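Sequence, C-alpha cells quoted for completeness.
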Amino acid sequence: MSLPRPVYVLLIAIVLFLPTVFLQAAENATCSFSTFSAPSGYTLNLVNGIADDGTVVGQLTDNETLANVGFTYSTAGVFTKYTAPNSQNTWMYGRNSNGVNAGSYQTKKYPGSMYGFFLQGSQFATVRYPKATNTWLFDVNQSGTAVGSFSASQTVTKAFLLVNGQFTTLAYPNALSTYAESISDNGIIAGFYENNDIPSGFLWQSGKFTSINYPKAKWGTALLGVNNSGAAVGIHYSGDNSFGFLYENGTFKNIVYSGAKFVTTGGINNNGVISGQIYFTLTDTLGYTATCK
C-alpha cells in the first residue's frame, strides 16, 4: 500500500497512550443497497470513499491494458475516469463535498514510485512527503486537511496529517507500519497499523490512538472510513477473504448481501451512507452504496 504529497514539513511523531477495544461477536446489519457495475471495457478494482453528496470514488482496471484508473461515480450513475499525468496506475481513495479528490499514482519509470495527489475539476497537485520513497494520499476533509502514509525504507511506513502544506507524522507506538485511511471534518482519523503483517484498526483523535479489533478476526482488522459522528467502517480478515463491517457506538455489525460470497466497505459519509464492493466471486463484483442499521 502507499500514499502522497509535497511542500514543507512539520515533523511531529505522535506516540501517545492508547486504550484497546475488543468486543463480542457481531450481528448482521440491516441494509438497503443500491448497486452499480463497472463501465464497458473495465472491471471494478476497488470501491473506496463516498462524499456527502453521494459521489463514490475508487479505481477501475482497464481490461485491455490492465492499468488501474481512478474514477468518480455520481448519484446520477455517471462514471468519470481519471489517469494522473505521466503515470502507469492511478488510484482514487477519498473525496470531500467541495469536489476535492484525494488519490495516488505510480510513476511510469520502472518500478515506479508512489505519489499522492489532489484533484478538483481539472486542477491537479502532486503530494510527496519530503524525502520519502513512496507517498499515498487517502482522504481529505471539508477544510482541506488530508491524511495518508509514506515510506522512506522497505520496512517502515508511517502515517501523516497534512494541514496547510505542513506534515505531522502519526506513528502507532511500536508498529512497523501505520496507515491513516480517512479523516472526518472534526478531525477523527481512522486507519490501521501492522506488526508481523497482522493489521489492527485504530481511531485517532486529539493526539490519542484507540485500537479497534473485530472480535476473533484471525488475520486482523482495518478501519477504512469514519464520519463526523464517529461511525466507522472497515474490514476484518477471517479465513481466505475480507469482510466488511460497521462500527458504531462500540458495536460491530457485519455488512452482508444476499447471495454474495463476501462484502467489503470503502467509506462512510456524514449521512451514514456506506460505499463498498459486493463479491459473488473474485471476478464477479458490484459496487454499492448502502444505508445500514
In short: The chain is about 0% helix and 55% strand. Residues 8-18+36-228 form a domain with the Neuraminidase fold (CATH 2.120.10.30). Residues 231 and 248 are 5 Å apart (CA to CA). Residues 1-24 have pLDDT under 50 and may be disordered.
